[in-house]
Amino acid sequence: MDAATCLKSLLLAIQQYRDGGTAQLAAQLQRQVEVSSLKCENLLSSGQFLPTECVSGLVELAGNPNTSPALTSAIISLLAQLGSDDASREILHSNYNLTGTLAAVIHCHSSTPGEPLVLQCLQVLQKLTYNSRTFQFTNYIHDLIGFLLTNIQSQNDDIIMPCLGLMANLCRDNPSVQCHIKSMDNVRQFYRTLINFLAHNSLTVVIFTLSILASLTLNEKVGEKLFDAKNIHQTFQLVFNIIVNGDGTLTRKYSVDLLVDLLKNPKIAAYLTRYQHLSACVAQVLGLLQSKDPDSAATVLELLLAMCSVAGLRSQLCDVVFRPSGPRLRAAGVRQGGGTDGGRGLALLQWLNSPVEGAEKCSLQTLQLLNELLEETLGAESVSESTLSFVEVLLPVVLGLLKGPDLPQGEADLRKHCQRIAHVSTLLLTLCSEDSSRSLVSSQVSAQLCFAQVDGLLSCCHGNSPLTSLAPASSSDLSQLCAEALLKTLELMSKLRQQVTDMETSFYRMLQDQRTVTPLSLALTSHHREHVQTALSLLAEATPLPDFPSLVLGESIAANNAYRQREAELSAKRVAVQGVPGLRTGSSVAEVSSGYRSVGSLVEKIQNGLELQEQTKDSPLSDIIDVYEQKLAGFASKESRLQDLLEAKALALSQADRLIAQYRLQRAQAEAEARKLAGLLKDAERRREDLQGELSNQVLEVERSKADMEELLQHNARLQRDSEEHQTLKGAYNALLNRFSESERLLKELQAAHVSLSKQIDTLRKNHEALQHQRDKLTSALQDREEEIGGLQADLQQRDGAVAGLTADLRSKEEALKEAEQKRRDLEETVDVLRKELSKTEQARKEASIKASSLELQKSQLEAKLKQKEDELTKHSAMIAMIHSLSSGKMKSDVNLSL
């Protein structure tokens, strides 16, 4: 079922229920509402008759106390479905007063706050009032605020969260509602309840509570205590943690709104500038841009744009975005989004041309954010290499937005196209403000691209473009958008005309085009200062050109001024114009009745003509029948058109009657509100007189206390100076005490290390003396044996050649013994070096212990080798004794060959 058929069926069911009001008609209407699927985009903003009539009837039935709760719930669900986008929600809020209707429903069921219908109304109201202004004089808003205050202080957890969210929406940027809440009697109890909610285990409840407190108490004593220098850093950390680690888009949106509201306070903005974890928090927030959720990305970009409005934060944002990712950020616990340098910048770039549905808003926000950041960075004394490398990566993506894969079709696409070109041109103009970045832009921007963009925008402005043509009913702001985008592009061409080939020729050619007159005249008569200044600079460039249409420009400016004057005159007559449809209804009925009479006379003439033809038979009968058939078809079509017009006018008349009834009801409510306000005004006057008397008494007391206050201030100043000096001395004392304790601890550690090293040195000295004594014994024994071996060798030389082989073996053993002696000497040198090294500072104690252990190992090895040599010498001595006994036949008894 298409949208038109669904709307007609729904409107018929609404009219039948309004006329009858029976239970059967109510059930039929509820079924029709439940099966209706009205998901067409721009259905409410189209201004057509059927959607307007259906929504008006549904809102009227929802606000009727006699409507059943089931039907009311179904109607509210359908209306919430209609308000799925921001534009539709704004229309439901402002044009159809859905907020007042839902407040009336809640008022009717306020005795049962836990009812599903009440919860449904609260949830729809929370979506409806988000970022929308609600006046306190709207129907039932006072009752709604009282209902919210009562249930926020209740113990029902199911209703506390939607009540807090709705209260946060009503209080934000709404001074009238804030003043009404502050004037209530139980506001202090309400503040205490909210402060208790700050310890709630739900982060959403905490954020709602902080938002309400920021709206109501930020500029009061309670707010100064809550958001002072001691607590504000914890608040910053909490908000950033919820933004980064929040479990839903709703909580993240309210967290960002809270931080944006806090940044509007100069004192809190200064606190955030000095916040020590700001860079790490911003890096984590930028990491959220790597997701594919356009809602989260739009929320993050909104926060970054709000932070750019603070001068002290803009430079820190530039430092985080354009600084390459390094070890310092990773050590601080920042969640890294990319593995290469410039990962955060790339996270911004991906939203410029993201294919995700709904990313157009994110693209414009990203362009605006990059414009702010690059304007800050390029305005510095020196531009970093990381910024220039980021600009090199940015330019192809931005120029790809100018080229555009598709041509805009329709007014909405044209609006997006003009906004995108205007933001891109503004960003490129910012890049042209610095020489190095301008050279990068000029190397990638071509004259053909700029010329094609200007030509396309001129065609759009004049309605003869292949891109699109403006509808007759299109608003003037679309023309302003086209003019703004066109002027920004022309200004970019003017900046680059000396650096880009053929850019100057294309620029002057566009200035002499007669189509530029319309956007120039719109900009010159605009109320935006920047547009006027840009148009004047372009006009100064175009005036000396020979073919510039100056006369046409003057006529266009005069026509714009006359049009605005005419609009101002007609604005006062719009009320009178609304009564025209009712007057035309009667004339339409007269036209329909005259059409019926003409059709009857036509039938009579046909019959008479047929009779005449039967008599005369001069002309062919078929031709006459064809003529009359054509006339009959024309009259039938005219009759159908008149019938449709009659039905439309009847519906318009019924709608006017309902509007009159609604107006009378609203007027009666307004009169009741006026009487109530008059009573409040009288009470306020009486209270003012009482307060005036109290004020005079207080003034006298104030004057008497001023002298005492001055003395106290002087004494306080002296005490403050003494306190500062005491704090300074106390800090110095604490620092010295810390240093002394640290030095004492180090001394004890060094003494313990010295004692242990002394013990090790004594042990090594004793071992060395024992080894020295053993070496002396071995040396004396070896000398004796050498003398004996020398005598034996003299005797052995006289023996026959059989003993020569044994002598050669003995010499080889002597050489091995000499090598052992050399190793012993090396060991002595090593021991001497070790003794010298042990006398050095305590820093070499570890090396000394290691070398001592190595020496012990060498000593053990040397002892093993010496023992082996002793065994070998014993064997050799035995062999020599055997040889000597064989040669002389006897052996001296006093020779001891053992070692």
Mean pLDDT: 80
Count of strand segments:
0
- Largest sheet data: none
The low-pLDDT segments are: 327-342, 464-474, 574-600, 609-619, 890-899
User: Taking Cα atoms only, what radius of gyration do you get, to the nearest Å?
Assistant: 49 Å
The helix fraction, in percent, is: over 70%
As a percent range, the share of strand residues is under 5%
> Which structural class should the secondary elements be placed in?
mainly alpha
Shape: elongated
List the quaternary state of the chains.
single chain
State the distance separating the first and last CA atoms: 122 Å
Helix tally? 36
Summarize the structure.
The protein is mainly α and 899 residues long.
Structure characterization notes:
The chain has 899 residues and is mainly α. Helix content is 78%, strand content 0%. Helix 26 packs parallel to helix 28. Residues 327-342, 464-474, 574-600, 609-619 and 890-899 have low confidence and may be disordered.
Secondary structure: elements and pairs:
Elements: H1 3-20, H2 23-35, H3 49-62, H4 69-82, H5 86-94, H6 98-108, H7 116-128, H8 141-152, H9 157-171, H10 175-182, H11 187-197, H12 203-217, H13 221-226, H14 232-245, H15 249-263, H16 266-273, H17 278-287, H18 294-308, H19 311-322, H20 327-331, H21 343-349, H22 360-378, H23 385-403, H24 411-431, H25 435-444, H26 447-462, H27 476-496, H28 503-511, H29 517-524, H30 529-542, H31 550-571, H32 574-577, H33 580-616, H34 621-797, H35 804-838, H36 845-888
